[in-house]
Amino acid sequence: MSVWTLNKTRLFEGVWEGELTRADGMTSEPSIEVTFMEHPVHGVQLKEDPAKNRWLVRIPIPSEAVADGVQTFLIVDKSTGGLLNKITMISGEVLADDIRAELDLLRAELDMLKRAFRRHCLETS
């Protein structure tokens, strides 16, 4: 089990960002590995933030990972082999039956009905 905890802060402009903290308060440098389809992801950056006793992690999402389906990245503590976090991206046709896509469609239809109902109320008053 890893002594490190990795929390996502954001995904912006193709870069996943997170904060890496150590449970025991030690300040040693972390050793992490990010893999996509069992291949290492290059360009991973670690930057120490000693004021807040944490490390800032930046993981670039490679362009070959932007595709239909579910894409998963694993972020692993190299010293223990423990999983620190994962990045899951879902896109394309696989979303057609996803509940979130259905909810978005329902919201759009509800907005359309509200506009039609308001127009009807104005015309009949």
Number-wise, the strands total: 8
Helix/sheet category = alpha+beta
Morphology: elongated
CATH topology name:
Immunoglobulin-like
- Treating each run of at least 4 consecutive H or I residues as one helix, how many helices? 1
Task: Characterize the biggest β-sheet.
Answer: 4 strands, antiparallel
Reported CATH architecture: Sandwich
Strand portion: 35-45%
CATH domain class name = Mainly Beta
- The rounded Rg comes to 22 Å
Order of helices and strands: EEEEEEEEH
| Tally of domains | 1
Oligomer: single chain
Average pLDDT number = 89
**The CATH H-level homologous superfamily:** Immunoglobulins
Spatial sequence of strands, sheet with the most strands: 1-2-6-5
Give structural attributes.
four-stranded antiparallel sheet; alpha+beta; Immunoglobulin-like
